[in-house]
Structure formats: C-alpha cells, structure tokens
Amino acid sequence: xxxxxxxxxxxxxxxxxxxxxxxxxxxxxxxxxxxxxxxxxxxxxxxxxxxxxxxxxxxxxxxxxxxxxxxxxxxxxxxxxxxxxxxxxxxxxx
Amino acid sequence: xxxxxxxxxxxxxxxxxxxxxxxxxxxxxxxxxxxxxxxxxxxxxxxxxxxxxxxxxxxxxxxxxxxxxxxxxxxxxxxxxxxxxxxxxxxxxxxxxxxxxxxxxxxxxxxxxxxxxxxxxxxxxxxxxxxxxxxxxxxxxxxxxxxxxxxxxxxxxxxxxxxxxxxxxxxxxxxxxxxxxxxxxxxxxxxxxxxxxxxxxxxxxxxxxxxxxxxxxxxxxxxxxxxxxxxxxxxxxxxxxxxxxxxxxxxxxxxxxxxxxxxxxxxxxxxxxxxxxxxxxxxxxxxxxxxxxxxxxxxxxxxxxxxxxxxxxxxxxxxxxxxxxxxxxxxxxxxxxxxxxxxxxxxxxxxxxxxxxxxxxxxxxxxxxxxxxxxxxxxxxxxxxxxxxxxxxxxxxxxxxxxxxxxxxxxxxxxxxxxxxxxxxxxxxxxxxxxxxxxxxxxxxxxxxxxxxxxxxxxxxxxxxxxxxxxxxxxx
Lengths: 94, 476
Fold this sequence. Notes:
The complex is a heterodimer.
Chain A: H1 4-13, H2 20-37, H3 73-78, E1 83-84, E2 87-88
Antiparallel strand pairs in A: 1-2
Chain B: H1 9-18, H2 23-41, E1 44-47, H3 51-63, E2 74-78, H4 105-113, E3 116-121, H5 155-162, E4 168-172, H6 179-184, E5 188-191, E6 212-216, H7 219-229, E7 255-258, H8 260-263, H9 270-285, E8 289-292, H10 301-316, H11 334-345, H12 348-360, H13 367-387, E9 393-397, H14 413-417, H15 425-429, E10 433-443, E11 446-456, H16 461-472
Parallel strand pairs in B: 2-3, 2-4, 7-8, 7-9
Antiparallel strand pairs in B: 1-3, 4-6, 5-6, 5-10, 9-11, 10-11
C-alpha cells in the first residue's frame, strides 16, 4: 500500500510536483494498478524456464561521416527556452 | 467532385497519372473536408499551411514522369513523429512550441515518395492512453458518433482517415494504439513487427514496445504505406532486415488459431463475441482452417505491460525538464526549474506513469516488479512461438467493446488500461498484428464499428495482408 508520503517521495525522485488533488488521488489509483499487477506473483518460479537474454546481434557501426559542425546549431538554439550567443542559459547550479 | 469515400491509393494514383485531377485538386478536396468536419471531430492539432505548395511540387513530379504510387497522396501524421521545421508536441503542453530539427526516418522516406503532409494529428499525451482524452489539447471525437471516443492513443490519425480528412495516416502502437482506434473508427490499422520500421525521430514512450504503424481504409492502402516506411536504418539499432520475397497471396489458405481460454476473460461484450464467431465462420467458408490454440499466459500480458511501460516511461520522459527545449517555468534555482516545468507541462496520466515507473524501478521493488515482468514476458513470448509452429495466424477481437462515451472511463485509470487487453500481448512479444473492420453494432441508433485482430509470426506482415484481404474480399 502506497501512502501519501510514499507518493510524495517518488514524485520528488522523479522531479515532479503534484497538486494537492493529485497527492490525494494518486495513492488510491496507484494501489488499484499495483493490485492488478500483483497477479504476476501467481507465476511461480517452477513455471519460469531459464531466463535468457533476447536475440543477440551486432548493432555496432563504424563511427564515421559526422554531421558538419554548426549545421544544426541555429535550429537547436531556437528551441532553447533561454539562450545567449548560441549557449544554453540556465539558473546558477551552485 | 472526387469520391473521397471510396478512394484508395491505387485509384488516386491512376487518376493523377491520367490527369483526371491534379494533386492540388486532391489536396483541396481533403482540405474542404477538413474545413467542413474537423471543428467537430478535432482530429488535427494543426493543418499545415503549405499543403497546396506540397501538392504543387507533387504535380511537377507527376508531370515529369517520376511519380511513385504515393506521390501526391494526402497523409496525416501523428503528432509524435518529427517533420523538420514543424511543431511536434506529442499532445503535450511541455512540447507545445517544440520545432523538430530533423526528419524522422519514416518522414524522410515519405518525402522521397512525394506525399502531401496534411497536418499533425491529435493523440493522448506522449501516447499514454486509449481514447485520445489524455491529449493536452482536448479529445478527438469518433466520426461515427461525436459523443464517443475514437480510441487511442492514435485517435486523431484514425479519425482523420475514417472521416476522409486524409487518405492514409501514420500512428504509433505501444500497447494497441494503432489497432484499437482503427477498430473503433472502422478502418485498417497495422502494428508492425518490432524492428521492422525505424523509430528514429519518433518521440519515445516505451522503447521496448513502441512501433510505428500505418492506417488506411483498405488493407492494400495500409500495405502500400507499410512497404514505403519499412526497412533497416543505421539511425535505429533496433531495426532488423526486411524479409525478401516472402509474399503470401490473398488466395492462400491459412491455419488460424483461436485462443479460446484468453477470450473467456471477463468483460467482453456479447455482441463482440457474436461478431467474432461470425467472422470465424466467414473465414471457414473462405477455406481457412480454424483451430483452438492455447495462450494460457496471455492473461498476464496487461499486468506485465503496466510494469514495463511505466518503467520505460519514467526513464524516457526524464529528458523533459524544460532545459534544452520545451516549456520552461523559471524558479529561483536550477532544480526548482525542473519541478515547476514538469509540473506545468506534464498531464495527469503522464505523471501517474512516471511515479509508478519510479516505484517499480526503485531498489526495494525492482525484483518483485520489473524483473518479474520481464520473466513473464519471456514466458508469453515462448507461448506465441510454440503456437506459431502450428498455425499461420492467431485471431482475436481487437477490443472488448465498441467505442465508449467521452468521459465514461476517465475516472478510473485501470478501467482505461483494460481497453488494451487483446492488443497488448504482441507489443511484448514483438509480433506484427493488424485490425480490420468486422462489422457494426447499433447503439443508441448509431452504427459503431467493431474489428478483428490477426497476429502472425515475426516479419510475416505478408500473411496478415493476405488473410485480411481474403476476409474483406479485397482484390481477389
């Protein structure tokens, strides 16, 4: 059972602020979902065959043909909420 | 007047080549339809202002004799697929003004074909939902009954095709988000084999589950669009090689397996069961063999999904922090910016899944939930593998019931999740599956569509097209 404090802690870990209403609703909703998910416990270890990794294949490629420096800069900077001289501007960290 | 209702890609292509009408005429006809209907349906978040310019370029291509089948064909694109220079918001406030800086691979392929992009379609925020009601921009309505949902999350794309506001459309399917709205809007929708279509440039929700899929009014249209977007891509390492020269004919006779135990699960509407049995009879009459198969662990698929999906959501959506792009709400410190931006930019369902995902991935519960879910996923995969040693196709209804009313299920998230019970398994197993229209149910004086789902072995979309064409009597 998840309590309001648990939900608050999880939200904090996920960098989310919840509204008062969400803080009250979410524990109940989460519980009903987790209760549904709990049916996975019915599956006993004897039903589980040796766990294997998925199909393995090589997906590595040569690291070549890099994008020319600067061709996307203008468009990327244009999407920044705050920028200066092609740099991203954020609040002071320290 | 172009008969949009009965138009297919092949018919439009022939007319364009013969000069019966131009791509500009065709695009104009669709724009008129949008002007007439979309204020009520709300399938589009944005209709592009340069549709006619795109169509003009297509006309030049046609005149110069370089046209392919898709040149000049009007297509709608789900709002989570990037088109360079255009907004892609994924139905979320946090990306309200985000302008894509590159083309998704599927978009690049379609641009080479010379399609006409009509606009970006409405969706549940970040594709989390089964009704399009979770869009930050208001719900899409079902063209068959404006009081009902079109299904989701690709509800805008499905409604656009069903209401003839685009000839074809692209959506994405993480737990049923192409097939389920296709079924509810009476059209064809395909979830492709995991890895068959590149997801480079698609806004990720659950990366082990997401797949792009085509919508069309006919199986053939969906097939043509599928062939145009598939293929291995060096920008998406999960893509696989497309099969060569394995193409089944609609005249082929298939062994079709029916997982009876799975269908006995509660909550399925009687008229859906009846329609499904009638569909099986039709398939039998067409010469296909129907046999019972066992998928006894499929009943756990939805539970597995609602562990894996939120887990992947919580990590995939960590990037929306209001820093490099998207909406930023400034506080007094950098960390406060994160909290405020995410609070104001993300919707209720998104936050719910992020919190749940954070929980199932937390150290004390990782084994109980995430590892367990992955193990059960392997068991379900094995079940399917075994069944496909015996049959070509597995058939189920696509949904447990026809489209429900707007607002009917929003109060209880679990009820909404149960909408995907028949579709979600193959997102776990990676198999391809298609939904095709199977009949109508009259509710409150209105005809509402139902769909049948066909599932095949990995990379055997050709079998899905063949059995679907046979079922619908298309091009035989």
